[in-house]
User: Fold these one by one.
Assistant:
Number 1:
Amino acid sequence: MQRIILIGYMGVGKTTVGKTLAKRLGLMFYDLDWYIESRMRKTVKQIFDERGEEGFRKIEHNMLHEVAEFEDVVIACGGGTPCFFDNMDYMNRQAETIYLDGSPDTIMRHLHMGKGVRPLLLGKSDDELSAYIHESLEARKPFYTKAKHTVEVFPMDSFDKIDTIVGQITQILE
């Protein structure tokens, strides 16, 4: 039975890496935000709008406890998941946790490549976005660094680069 949970800041590549890792290891892949959306029949943004961040974090906590009971899975968590309640300690008890550590520059590049709506970033200019990433990354690092493993991430603008990171993770897990 294998259970792997990927954590790290939004836009660092958890879903991209998670899908590829799951495929390589023959495991199911779950993105926690997608799981929440399918169970709640609402987007993360809608939940944020209706219930605020606190309401969303309670739902996220409960859904994490559901999905982290599954066997033979790779789970990509939202960027804030490890930072609330006892989520990080719980994940460490349940799974091999891997912190995908990306620089603010790498994160900015990924966010510009991505298409998704990120509620915490709406309406920010590039300068505001950069300042926000630096500030919140520092605040979240103490939670992220509790992961059992850390893999440094660089801009993943090709399949080869994604493959390299997945290769590093599979070596760590052997």
Number 2:
Amino acid sequence: MIDVLNDADFELFRNVIYDESGITFSATNRSILDSRIKELLRTKNIATPREYYSLITKNTEEMKVMLDSVTTNLTRFFRNQPHFDALINYVIPHVIENKKEAGGVDKVIKIWSAGCSSGEEPYTIAMVLSEILPPPYTYQITASDISLKSILVAQKGFYGEGKVDGVPPNYLSKYFTKVDDGYQIKKEIQDKIKFDYHNLKNDSGIRNLDVIFCRNVLIYFDEPAQLAVINRFYNSMAAKSYLFIGHSESLFGMNTQFDFLKTQWACLYEKKPH
């Protein structure tokens, strides 16, 4: 019989998850952690939470597996359409203008989809930019997640029938190939995106980003961890650049260097020289 997490076990796992990733489990979402750990014990045939805790603290690969298992990966194509309307109508025109003001040499728009899950967000961004960018401008997208399973799905670029419901018909026909029981994203879009495992607790090493999407990720962090992530974003971005976070998330009350930006399409944040 597999043990349920007792209070002491819960604190152990809660603390190590926070230390390793910044993700916070509280009493309100304790049941999620409990069920995920029990499933890991079952699949690995380990008798007690303490045995598994001992394993993950000695084995970095097993730690990644555990972090992967306790994260929630909910996404879809064109999730929160107003953000993409703001990207199309406000952000990209301003990014291009910023590049012209900086001398016009840089023609590559650099975007990071942080917490990309199974890839729907970065592929949506890529399709949108493929539609709207005027030549000679092009784009590069880095897409990262703490879930290795999600990254593998994203890299394949295959989505079942129900997964493409939010994709406009013209995008579906232009950027996907219909196969057996789903749709395969076309190589021309896949080649524009670099998928990578990344823990937001660490610096990505990326610099001069024009746009960051990090939506519905900060809600899993407490405020100190949120602030640390936001500051790392700030340092990775170009002098004039833009940050999208989830519609239920806010930097209000946090001591950040970003400016709140309200457009007619959506609210976002802006980095500009101070």
Number 3:
Amino acid sequence: MMEVVRDLDRGAKVGTAIVILFLLAVFVGPYVHPYSETDIVGAPFGPATSEFWLGTDNVGRDILARILAGGRMTVIIAFLATTGAFLIGVPLGIAAAVIGGRFDLIMARAVDALMAFPGLILALIVLSAIGTSIPALLAMMSVLSSTIVFRLTRAVAADVAAMDYVEVARLRGENMRWFLFREILPNVMPTLLTEFGLRFVYAAILISSLSFLGLGIQPPYADLGGMVKENALAITFGKWAPVLPALALSTLAIGVNLIVDGLLKRNASLDAGR
């Protein structure tokens, strides 16, 4: 792992530092901060002071405490949803590339049909019908992102499946598990790792967008998108309350994207050197 970090360019190292600091803040900060995300500790839209570093929100809760808690919630849900998308999309994509034929055609058309709907609109329809519980959010986000993961995995796995060593394994009569874990997956892993970062950022933005629209994480629990909605009125008074959670989300997205860009450059240089 340390060798991979050393091979990254300067931008990716900066991104790694940003992400590490963000994760430390959101996972350690709530346990050392004196206030919780739900405590009403001051007047609405109070200014930044030595006690409340970022001021208070629309009902008098500490903004820093809510950003830390909301950032933690965003990271956890985005990570779980992205992991779920890969658990769905990667095996199906590899299976479609290896098996081909009718199975590949059916899977590709099913994914195309699902991707024909705008993601956010489809999410709003589904959540309005089944409710806004955490399991429902995770399931919906995993399925939505799995379509992109499936198409990418299918494309790169098809190239690997055409290699001579895969054909030799096919002639030996190896089963699908062998193709998945021994032949295909190790060769597509660098591409999937970079895609994981991109899907993670997409999931973080999606959950914040849903919370802003009222169908994500429900009050009183904090969420970065929900905080923007709750404090939107403050912007007319020159207050920073709705801007701060948006900056926190942007910081996370920038850090992850810098890492992804570095991994892409590293993979490209390794491929060029072969």
